[in-house]
Amino acid sequence: MREAGGGHHDLEVILRRPTAVSLIVICATALATGSAVALGQTPFPVYGDTPTTSTPVPDPVVPAAPATPVAPAVPAVSSREAELQGQIATLRRQLARERAKHRRQLRAVRTSARAHVSRTLKDAVNQQPVQHAIALAAATFGVSEDKLRRVASCESTLNPSAGDGRRYVGLFQFGAPLWRATPYRDFSRTDPYAAALAASWAFARGMRSHWPVCGYR
User: Which of 4, 142, 172, 202 lies in the 20 to 30 Å Cα band around 155?
Assistant: First the structure.
């Protein structure tokens, strides 16, 4: 649209003034920042250009090499240490021998103790009928119970199975001829009741000479 009297030139001036002002603002900003202009980079994009941004690329990370394990240094053994180690080894061998010896002795003591307990129990079991047999025999024939017990203790230590099984056997160590002469000959000489009754029968008849040692006690 054109005005009369030269209005066309005034419109051109009005359109150009904002462009000049924009350039002044851009230059002032560049001078204020300094770095962008100095590096040849435009802080504001020029009309028609595509704005670009530069992103810093980090350096590649190189993994560290694994550390090589270092073996600890072995201290040198002195002559004194070697001597002490030898003495320790000798003492250990001596201790092992002493322990083995102690175990053998302990086994022997245990075996002996078991045998002693077994004999004691056996004797205790056997003593009860022996004492009863002596008391019964003494009462049957009127002989002293103490005398019969002394003779039996002397002959067999109150063991009804004492003897070699051939010549003298039993609680009173009867020989075969005398045993056959008693009323109890049909019983075994190792029977404590038969032996005690036979001895009491013999002593009641004055036959103590058949026990030349123990019969006079």
Answer: 142
132 and 196 share one domain: yes
Task: Give the DSSP H/E element, type plus range, for residue 107.
Answer: helix 79-141
Tokens 């083995």 locate to 100
Selection from 198, 193, 211 nearest residue 129 by Cα: 193
Could you tell me the pTM of the whole model? 0.45
Residue type, 96: A
pLDDT tens digits, one per residue of 1-56: 444 454 544 544 444 445 555 556 665 665 555 544 444 454 445 445 555 555 66
Are 171 and 156 in contact by the 8 Å Cβ rule? The answer is yes
Query: Running DSSP on this structure, what letter comes out for residue 16?
Result: H
**CATH classification at residue 115:** 1.10.530.10
Q: Which two tokens stand for residue 145?
A: 């119970």
Range of the domain at 92: 80-216
Q: Do 39 and 54 touch, CB atoms closer than 8 A?
A: no
* pLDDT tens, position by position, 93-151: 999 999 999 999 999 999 998 888 877 766 666 667 899 999 999 999 999 999 999 99
CA distance 217 to 185: 25
146, 89: one domain: yes
Q: Are residues 197 and 123 in the same domain?
A: yes
> Considering its fold, how many domains does the chain have in total?
2
The C-alpha atoms of residue 173 and residue 189 are separated, in whole angstroms, by 8
